[in-house]
Design brief:
It is a single chain. With about 290 residues, the protein is an alpha/beta fold. The protein has a single domain, classed as TIM Barrel (Alpha-Beta Barrel), CATH 3.20.20.190. The strands form two sheets. It has an eight-stranded parallel β-barrel with strand order 1-2-4-7-9-10-11-12, surrounded by four helices. A three-stranded antiparallel beta sheet has the order 6-5-8, with no helix packed on it. Helix 1 packs across helix 3. The longest helix has 22 residues. The radius of gyration is 19 Å and the shape is globular. The N and C termini lie far apart (about 55 Å).
């Protein structure tokens, strides 16, 4: 009994400590935590480092949504609700309605669906309804932003979302198809593709002008439709991060939480020194 009470007390202490840590973090609009669940403390490490975009891969097992990268057989205890939705709700309650105090934009939870799209979404939809108070919604043509926006990737239930009048999820568009896809602007909030599909540069030497022009064209097309751009599996170095930002890429994909955080903070500070009068660097996107 004593041990049970001790464990419960420690859980409450850790929760309060984490929420306070989030409150003191610098929100980074360009930071995207790729495969966040690989970290020792999923979600918490990303939020403590100021990340505003976080990814979790999800498998449907029975009626449970399990967070895993390949085979969820030994990961049945790692539920999407426990690892992500519950802690996000607790953070919002602790921080007066937002994940980060003073940061009035939603953070994005990208759910990469690894199992059949429609069956997985049916279960996910039921789960999201429990957290509707904190989730960005689409209701009969009107989008209402709240503390967290859910975006679906991987196996995408496009047709189901397309015909829903009310929903709590959006879709990550294939960036390479963005030039031709002119419908469903209320479904897409992001546009992504693999880095090597557009760029072969690894960060050494100069980015070839032809590759830069191609990327900028895709970025401009996505931006014209209100979609933020992400290139996944990009080289993890400052030269690449810097060029992506200069080309207008909104979300820098990384597994190196601290390294990217320090780069973005440093870049923001340098811009502020060069161009006085910029918005508060704690909340400003770098592009």
């Amino acid at each position: 009994m004593r041990r049970t009470c001790f464990n419960a007390a420690m859980a409450v202490f850790c929760l309060l400590f984490s929420c306070r840590a989030f409150a003191q973090s610098i929100p980074l609009p360009n930071a995207f935590a790729h495969n966040d669940y690989w970290h020792k403390r999923p979600l918490h490490e990303a939020l403590e480092n100021g990340y505003t975009n976080i990814e979790a891969d999800v498998f449907l097992r029975g009626k449970s949504l399990v967070v895993a990268h390949i085979n969820p057989f030994f990961k049945s205890h790692r539920k999407l609700e426990k690892l992500y939705l519950q802690p996000l709700l607790e953070a919002v309650v602790s921080n007066d309605g937002r994940i980060y105090p003073g940061y009035d934009k939603p953070i994005t939870l990208l759910i990469d669906i690894k199992t059949e799209a429609n069956e997985t979404y049916k279960i996910l939809k039921q789960l999201l309804e429990k957290y509707s108070d904190i989730l960005t919604s689409y209701d009969n043509g009107v989008i209402t932003e709240r503390a967290v926006t859910i975006v679906l990737s991987g196996h995408k239930p496009y047709d189901m979302l397309k015909y829903e009048s009310n929903r709590l999820a959006f879709i990550d568009k294939d960036l390479q198809k963005s030039v031709h896809d002119t419908v469903g602007t209320d479904i897409y909030t992001m546009a992504s593709c693999k880095y090597s599909k557009l760029i072969k540069w690894n960060g050494y030497g100069a980015l070839p002008e032809s590759q830069k022009a191609r990327l900028i064209n895709y970025v401009n097309t996505a931006h014209s439709r209100g979609e933020r751009v992400r290139l996944w599996a990009s080289p993890e170095n400052k030269a690449v991060w810097n060029e992506l930002l200069k080309c207008g890429v909104d979300l820098i994909n990384t597994n190196k939480l601290v390294a990217l955080k320090m780069f973005l903070i440093s870049t923001s500070q340098n811009l502020r020194e060069d161009l006085p009068g910029l918005p508060d660097p704690r909340f400003a996107s770098l592009n």
